[in-house]
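User: Fold this; tokens only.

Assistant: Input:
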Amino acid sequence: MVETKEAATEKTLISATSRVAIAAAVALLAALGWSFRSSFFYLSQYWEKDSNYSYGWLIVPFALVILWYRRRALDEITPRANTWGFVALAALLAFRAYLYEQNEQWIEASLIPAVVASLVLAIAGWQVLRWSLPAVIYLFFMIPLPPRFNDLLASPLQTVATLGSVQVLRVLRLPVLSEGNVIYIGTQHLEVAEACRGLSMLLAFAALITLTVILNPRPIWERVLLILSIIPIALFCNIIRISVTAVAYWYYNREMHTVHDWAGYAMMVLALGLVLLELKVMLWVVVEERERGPALLQAAYGSNAGSR
């Protein structure tokens, strides 16, 4: 009975400590969220006004989904406060204050995932940080690309979209040629502008496929293959979208912007279908290897037995 009472008392203390830790974490998180309100406003302007980053509103909810999906592993972890987490948090906040004074809004906003990681380490320790790391890393998807990187990607993406669409239209036997980023179909022309370069599709697919990789416990090689397929799937879908827009414009004289927008929504479905097809193909490959392995072993042992 004495051991039972001691065990009950220990559990009560642990439970009380956990509640205090959770309350402290929530209070610190609320304080940090309030202090970073200018950064969140900066990000929300991107998500609202720049179509390339309209998916940014979904990143935090998806990160919470990742944590919920991994919640069972947390039962085996005992949270412990870590001094180094508070040191890192203080250093990041001091650096953030300097960036705020220098009006370096992008760098300041990009510190948010690191601040969250430092907070988790400070309140709960290394084990909980390792548990939450996939969700913390996923938060980087809410940060827009640096403006210079945006400009660097613009020309290659537009060129690939233009040339790929021209090839598709030629296969369909349409009278088409290109000059720069303009596609001429007979006497009409279709400009592959910045909005059509496919950056939004590339970034949205990157966030979506990364979420799929995190939530699906698959071998490393399959996860790497899925990540590597982000770029070709995004480029392919964007080329199809521009080609569909051109075909509708040529045959049916439909308003270009309307067709382009609806085709963009349809390409999300196409991209999901391609990802599912890729997963199915990888599943077939793995099953084939698993079935072939025992057969080869049986053949080898059978031949040895026969030789004896």
